[in-house]
């Protein structure tokens, strides 16, 4: 499971100004649950997920994944997670097969088991047509499929998807969603970050709406919609963001 | 360290680079094509390599017509210059028209050239040379041959001829060389003939001839010639072969977003760094090898294969290097490739984009070039001191290998190897730090805003200086100190020396730190660490200064053994000793040489600079960085080494006590000890004979047992101080921790905004 408490991240710029990317967020994600992080660009979603994937270090706060601390035990954490992001690109000069194989081996899977696992993944994501195609010659959808296969190859208990379906065509996106649903049913602990409401509505059990580094609202999706008096998720999202922006502007003016 | 991961990453990086056309072109194709193309070009331009004719304008040629005559039929006689050279030196005889010319000759005839304006003569002759398209002017105001009758008649001065050459013109210098060669031959003939006429032997003026004989065998000569060229070439090949793959593997990966993918996988940062280092090393080695092969094959055909066409300009007279040298060269390529790969990777890991990475190549070459140039000096030898200098040691080792000086190689290959391994290790550590650095990894497009920086620096000041402000202070001190060094005159009295020392230290070291603390921070007293502390800590610091002196004395001896002082420094020391002898008393020397420098330097380096550096995550890193700048501020290299070690101790004290007072006390006592020991030496040690004695080399040395006890005491006190105090958290100190300010003036600077 994922356990996050008062996680903050402050970036120091080269002109010595500071930017608060995360202002003390807290949430928990249980096994078999898809937790949605919903927010506009710059809300702090990617920063939070980068901290969970140990690529960034938090300024303060605690983040535990399956009991391992992201600051003190980053290498153990990396074995527990599969991280797919728009920023985790694939190598232009490696084929799909080579790429997934490399990350499988780096995760400590033996060559024999890896071949079986990869055959299954390539079959499931319909990647056999381009298994020998170099990354630089792949379409966006192909690249995203390779990224997901790379994240799933070691069968991690925790999966972090940051805009995982961005740039995919409708068929490929549907395949990604089906995979995430399947993984949830298998008991994986999943964080899914997006700013597309339909994706969140389809996949997530619980959502946190973020803006300016803070969680504005966090609730199980079903409860949220039930108490929304007829408003849908999009209305709730826009109202919250508008409110947060107004408060921020008022704060600056004061 | 999981070596399976390292080899997995190595094979990935190798495959990746081998599929990159740009890398393949730079590393493989270019070396293979470059030298044959250069060979072809050289053959093409060989036809332009010929000796060009030059012209000499002779004024007063009638004075050259004695016996034997220098000129015959308007040319230099064949006795004085061989016919091929004579053909290349056309003689123009002066016409005697023109008032200016007549006046000039007249002035020179009086043998009174000092009265003539040299600038006028030069201008006139330059104008004449240009008008005549001539390269050299020769003025002969008087007959040059020996005339016994004239000598007996009272003319005593030796007649002179004047050569007016333009040293900025190659043609003029060549013409002068040709003319002088002929004139010297003629002069010797005139001398010999005059001696014979006087019935004297020519041996009267030249009793013997010295002839040097080269005993080097062919292989040795060839090895010596190549030993100066090949190491330099190898370094350049290695650096270029390493740099482009390094930039692609670090900065390129950041740009393409694949580094984040890699960093989120279970391979550790060290495994990733070593995998990349090994890849870069392989490419660097391959570049060297391919360049070497291509150059070798091309040279073979150009030098050895076409002897009949010899004289290929700059390669004329060059022979192929001996086989033994070539084998050693290949062996030495491995550590060279390792060192340059590590350096390139360290530079590339710091870059946020490929474009930024390319910018670092020139500074890297500029840093390496002086280190590569040191071995080119004839006086430089492979010894302990030079073997410990990165790059230089490797180059000297390689030179010795090529020259076949095996005993020297065996003696010093250990230190060179250690320095190389240390360089590689440091580079890998640096790369790991960069891979953990968010500013380097994720903000490639961030722009530096000077306006924002200035706004924050002056209007939104913080209580402590930032890392950037600390760096600015350190660089300012170094630059100001460098230029102030030129204004220093050699002191003649102690009072002059004292005044100069105090002014220079105050202006170049203390003032930059004080001004920056006052104008860039809210609390100058905190920035300079001007805080009270427990008296016990000051007492401990004083004792540390005393008790670690044996360690520094030993270290000083070691440094001076490895890098002896040169004559100029020794002369300076003897002048200083004379100046010091004029001091009014020991207290004055201690104040000027120990206490004041300690106070000024500590306030700057452990005060402002360390306070700023401590904003970095690692306090130990801050101590090392401040010590590095403290060492650089010392002009003499040997002093810098000691200053670095001393700076580490003062830095740790400042870090743990957060007060400058114990640092000043320790530093002042450290400085005072050498003065006090000098005084004791003059007095014959007195009651301290159990502690110190004069060594065989005439320097003060500690007796082993008390020195060990003192050192142990110093280390224990340092440990006690470390344990007693707790380091302040990085960032802004709280009011509670600040303690009372010692300097109200510093705490509330006039005119500073709050």
Widest sheet: strand ordering of chain A: 6-7-8-3-9-10
Q: Report the radius of gyration of chain B as a whole number of Å.
A: 35 Å
The most extensive interface between chains reads: A-B, 37 and 36 residues
- The structure class of chain A reads alpha/beta
Main sheet: strands, sense, barrel of chain B: 4 strands, mixed
- Mean pLDDT across the residues of chain B is 80
Shape of chain B: globular
Give the helix level of chain B as a range of percent.
Answer: 55-70%
Q: For this entry, what is the oligomeric state of its chains?
A: heterodimer
How would you state the average pLDDT of chain A, rounded? 86
Structural class of chain B: mainly alpha
Distance between the termini of chain B: 52 Å
Please report which band the strand proportion of chain A falls in: under 5%, 5-15%, 15-25%, 25-35%, 35-45% or over 45%: 25-35%
A few lines on this structure:
Chain A is of the alpha/beta class and 254 residues long.
Please give a structural write-up.
The complex is a heterodimer of chains A (254) and B (754). Chain A is an alpha/beta fold. Chain A contains 9 helices and 10 strands. Chain A has helices spanning 45-52, 74-80, 96-106, 111-124, 140-152, 170-185, 197-203, 221-226, 233-253, and strands at residues 2-12, 18-29, 34-38, 60-65, 68-69, 81-85, 158-162, 189-194, 206-211, 214-220. In chain A, the strands form 2 sheets. Chain A has a 6-stranded mixed sheet with strand order 6-7-8-3-9-10, sandwiched between helices. Chain A has a 4-stranded antiparallel sheet with strand order 2-1-4-5, with helices on one face. In chain A, a hairpin with a 2-residue loop joins strand 9 and strand 10 (214-220). Chain A is globular and about 60 Å long. Chain A starts with a strand and ends with a helix. Chain B has 754 residues and is mostly helical. Chain B is built from 31 helices and 8 strands. Chain B has helices at 3-18, 21-46, 83-88, 99-109, 118-132, 148-152, 170-197, 218-256, 258-263, 269-304, 323-350, 354-359, 361-373, 384-387, 392-403, 406-436, 438-442, 450-459, 467-487, 494-520, 524-527, 535-547, 549-562, 567-580, 586-613, 619-632, 637-657, 660-682, 704-724, 735-738, 744-747, and strands spanning 54-59, 71-72, 75-76, 89-93, 136-139, 162-165, 692-694, 700-702. In chain B, the strands form 3 sheets. Chain B has a 4-stranded mixed sheet, with helices on both faces. Chain B has a two-stranded antiparallel sheet with strand order 2-3. In chain B, a hairpin with a 2-residue loop joins strand 2 and strand 3 (75-76). Chain B is globular. The two termini of chain B are 52 Å apart. Classes of the chains: A alpha/beta (254), B mainly alpha (754). The interface between A and B is large, with 37 and 36 residues.
């Amino acid at each position: 499971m994922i356990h996050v408490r008062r996680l903050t991240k402050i970036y120091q710029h080269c002109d010595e100004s500071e930017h608060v990317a995360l202002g003390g967020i807290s949430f928990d994600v249980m096994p078999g649950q898809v937790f949605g992080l919903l927010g506009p660009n710059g809300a702090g979603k990617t920063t939070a997920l980068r901290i969970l994937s140990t690529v960034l270090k938090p300024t303060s706060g605690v983040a535990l994944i399956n009991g391992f601390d992201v600051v003190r035990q980053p290498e153990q954490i990396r074995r527990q997670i599969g991280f797919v992001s728009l920023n985790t690109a694939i190598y232009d000069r490696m084929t799909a097969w080579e790429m997934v194989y490399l990350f499988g081996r780096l995760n400590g899977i033996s060559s024999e088991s890896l071949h079986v696992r990869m055959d299954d993944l390539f079959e499931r994501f319909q990647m056999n047509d381009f298994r020998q195609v170099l990354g630089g010659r792949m379409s966006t959808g192909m690249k995203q499929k390779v990224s997901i296969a790379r994240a799933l190859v070691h069968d991690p208990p925790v999966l972090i998807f940051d805009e995982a379906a961005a740039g995919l065509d409708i068929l490929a996106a549907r395949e990604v969603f089906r995979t995430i649903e399947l993984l949830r049913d298998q008991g994986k602990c999943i964080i899914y970050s997006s700013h597309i409401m339909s994706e969140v509505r389809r996949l997530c059990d619980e959502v946190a709406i973020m803006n300016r580094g803070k969680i504005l609202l966090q609730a199980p999706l079903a409860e949220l919609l039930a108490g929304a008096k007829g408003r849908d998720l999009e209305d709730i999202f826009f109202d919250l963001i508008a409110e947060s922006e107004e408060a921020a502007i008022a704060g600056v003016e004061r | 360290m999981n070596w399976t991961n390292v080899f997995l990453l190595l094979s990935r990086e190798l495959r990746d680079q081998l599929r990159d056309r740009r890398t393949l072109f730079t590393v493989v194709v270019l070396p293979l094509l470059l030298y044959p193309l250069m060979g072809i070009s050289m053959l093409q331009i060989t036809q332009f390599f010929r000796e060009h004719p030059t012209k000499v304008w002779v004024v007063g040629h009638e004075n050259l017509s004695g016996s034997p005559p220098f000129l015959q039929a308007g040319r230099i006689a064949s006795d004085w210059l061989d016919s091929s050279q004579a053909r290349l030196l056309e003689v123009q005889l002066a016409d005697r028209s023109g008032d200016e010319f007549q006046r000039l000759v007249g002035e020179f005839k009086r043998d009174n050239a000092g009265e003539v304006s040299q600038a006028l003569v030069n201008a006139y002759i330059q104008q004449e040379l240009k008008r005549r398209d001539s390269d050299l002017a020769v003025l002969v105001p008087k007959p040059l041959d020996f005339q016994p009758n004239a000598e007996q008649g009272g003319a005593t001065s030796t007649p002179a001829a004047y050569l007016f050459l333009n040293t900025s013109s190659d043609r003029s210098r060549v013409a002068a060389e040709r003319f002088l060669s002929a004139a010297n031959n003629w002069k010797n003939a005139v001398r010999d003939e005059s001696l014979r006429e006087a019935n004297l032997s020519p041996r009267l003026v030249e009793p013997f001839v010295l002839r040097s004989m080269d005993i080097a065998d062919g292989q040795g000569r060839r090895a010596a010639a190549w030993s100066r060229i090949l190491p330099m070439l190898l370094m350049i090949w290695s650096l270029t072969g390493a740099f482009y793959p390094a930039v692609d593997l670090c900065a390129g990966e950041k740009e393409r977003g694949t580094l984040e993918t890699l960093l989120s996988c279970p391979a550790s940062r060290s495994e990733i760094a070593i995998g990349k280092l090994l890849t870069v090393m392989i490419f660097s080695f391959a570049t060297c090898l391919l360049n070497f092969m291509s150059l070798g094959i091309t040279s073979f055909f150009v030098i050895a294969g076409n002897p009949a066409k010899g004289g290929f300009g700059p390669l004329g007279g060059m022979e192929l290097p001996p086989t033994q040298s070539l084998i050693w060269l290949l062996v030495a390529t491995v550590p060279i490739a390792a060192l340059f790969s590590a350096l390139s990777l360290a530079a590339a890991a710091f870059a946020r984009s490929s474009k930024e990475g390319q910018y670092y190549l020139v500074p890297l070459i500029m840093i390496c070039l002086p280190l590569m140039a040191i071995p080119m000096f004839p006086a430089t030898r492979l010894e302990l001191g030079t073997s410990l200098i990165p790059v230089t040691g490797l180059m000297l080792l390689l030179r010795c290998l090529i020259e076949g000086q095996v005993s020297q190689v065996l003696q010093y290959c250990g230190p060179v190897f250690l320095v190389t391994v240390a360089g590689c290790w440091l580079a890998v550590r640096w790369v790991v730090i960069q891979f953990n650095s968010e500013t380097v990894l994720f903000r490639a497009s961030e722009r530096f805003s000077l306006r924002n920086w200035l706004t924050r620096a002056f209007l939104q000041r913080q209580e402590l200086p930032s890392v950037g402000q600390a760096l600015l202070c350190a660089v300012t001190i170094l630059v100001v100190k460098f230029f102030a060094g030129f204004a220093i005159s050699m002191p003649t009295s102690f009072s002059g020396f004292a005044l100069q020392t105090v002014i220079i230290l105050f202006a170049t070291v203390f003032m930059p730190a004080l001004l920056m603390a006052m104008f860039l921070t809210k609390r100058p007293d905190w920035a300079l660490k001007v805080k009270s502390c427990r008296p016990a800590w000051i007492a401990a610091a004083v004792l540390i200064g005393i008790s670690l002196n044996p360690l520094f004395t030993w270290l000083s001896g070691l440094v001076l053994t490895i890098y002896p002082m040169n004559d100029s420094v020794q002369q300076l020391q003897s002048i200083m000793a004379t100046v010091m002898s004029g001091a009014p008393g020991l207290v004055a020397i201690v104040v000027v040489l120990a206490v004041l420098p300690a106070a000024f330097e500590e306030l700057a380096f452990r005060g402002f600079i360390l306070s700023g550096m401590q904003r970095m995550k690692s306090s130990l890193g801050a101590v090392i960085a401040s010590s590095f700048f403290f060492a650089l501020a010392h002009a003499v290299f040997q002093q810098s080494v000691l200053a670095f070690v001393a700076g580490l101790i003062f830095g740790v004290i400042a870090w743990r006590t957060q007060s400058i007072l114990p640092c000043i006390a320790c530093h002042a006592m450290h400085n005072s000890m050498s003065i006090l020991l000098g005084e004791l030496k003059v007095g014959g040690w007195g009651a301290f004979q159990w502690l110190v004695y004069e060594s065989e080399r005439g320097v003060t040395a500690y007796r082993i047992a008390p020195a060990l006890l003192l050192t142990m005491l110093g280390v224990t006190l340092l440990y006690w101080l470390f344990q007693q105090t707790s380091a302040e958290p990085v960032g802004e100190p709280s009011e509670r921790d600040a303690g009372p300010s010692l300097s109200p003036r510093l705490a509330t600077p006039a005119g500073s905004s709050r």
